[in-house]
Design brief:
This protein has 339 residues and is an alpha+beta fold. The protein contains twelve helices and nine strands.
């Protein structure tokens, strides 16, 4: 069990401190409660755009990475449908530098047309390279709007249309920042061989004066039950056929989340998983296949996808998956397999 201390600053910033005296490294994690779910349907991809903009310099620190590397630090970030997360690891004696860097980004970015254009171009190229110009790259761009009709999970974090980023202007970007990148929409975690009292003092020093935001995130429309099969066939210039099946699943905080997570592991995690043993090794119906859950804050997806073997039709491949699912549904998983 991990022991930690948590408290909240007057401006709404939630803080979590964990003492670990076994390491000389400290980890600083700043999670913002903003993801693609919070975007305007006509301006998608903004949360992911900000993942890039946040490294483009802040009001008082024009070169974030240069300062961090000078004190032995490393950093990265990721964007999901639900959150955007920034993290740093560095020697514990340089902790205050990390807090200073993160507080200056939260306070105000170095907004400029030039900085926006640079990061806009980076995201556009990422969109093209990862989603449009490689085989199967657009799978989730096609699957999400098929699975979701009203919830904003219907688009990927990269956005649903490249034009939304191409046409983004500085005023829209600033508005998005001051809505979501506020202390009352963030959680700061610090873990390592900390001097707890000194760490609290530094957090108050650097974050305490940042004003909280007044924007109230609207309640999102929940996806209604799906009562019919939805099917989409897409023809692309790709080397092999690819079959994807998605099922509506539960929220990350639901008790069934762990059951679904285990089910995806039983089906496809490891050399002894059922898909690998039955559909790849024994029957040779698939050359590759996997199952995973999206693990979203609202109801997510249980996704199965794979490449059928040569001369195996998509219909035959789908029937084989249903056979495995029905077997899992009607026969108990043994204790040995579960272990």
């Amino acid at each position: 069990m991990v022991s930690f201390e948590s408290y909240t600053l007057a401006n709404g910033l939630r803080v979590i401190l964990h003492l670990d005296n076994t390491t000389p490294i400290v980890a600083v994690n700043l999670l913002y409660q903003v993801g693609s779910r919070n975007e305007n349907p006509n301006r998608t991809g903004f949360a992911h755009l900000f993942e890039h903009l946040m490294f483009g310099g802040s009001k008082n620190i024009p070169k974030y990475d240069k300062v961090l590397q000078a004190v032995g630090g490393e950093n990265n970030a990721f964007t999901s449908n639900d959150v955007t997360n920034y993290y740093i690891s560095l020697p514990v004696q340089n902790l205050e530098t990390a807090l200073w860097l993160e507080s200056d980004r939260m306070n105000e970015l170095a907004f400029s047309e030039n900085a926006l254009q640079i990061q806009r171009n980076v995201v556009i190229e990422e969109f093209k390279q990862s989603y449009l110009n490689q085989p199967y790259g657009d799978l989730m761009l096609l699957l999400r709007p098929l699975a979701y009709k009203v919830h904003p999970y219907q688009w990927n974090t990269i956005g649903k249309d490249i034009k939304h980023i191409e046409e983004a202007n500085l005023n829209e970007v600033k508005d998005f920042f001051y809505k979501f990148y506020r202390p009352n929409k963030a959680i700061l975690s610090v873990a390592g061989n900390l001097d707890i009292d000194k760490t609290k003092m530094w957090i108050d020093k650097w974050f305490g004066s940042i004003p909280s935001g007044s924007y109230n995130t609207p309640i999102l429309p929940q996806e209604p039950p799906q009562n019919e099969r939805r099917f989409l066939e897409v023809k692309r210039n790709v080397p092999y056929n690819y079959l994807v099946m998605a099922f509506h699943s539960c929220k990350r905080k639901d008790k069934d989340f762990y059951t679904n997570d285990l089910l995806s592991d039983i089906l496809s995690n490891g050399e002894s998983s059922r898909f690998r043993e039955n559909l790849i090794n024994k029957k040779r119906i698939f050359s590759s296949i996997s199952a995973y859950i999206t693990g979203n804050f609202d109801n997510g997806l249980f996704v199965i996808g794979g490449v059928p073997s040569e001369n195996i039709t998509l219909q035959h491949a789908e029937e084989a998956i249903w056979e495995e699912l029905n077997n899992l549904k009607t026969n108990l998983v043994s204790d040995k397999e579960l272990e």
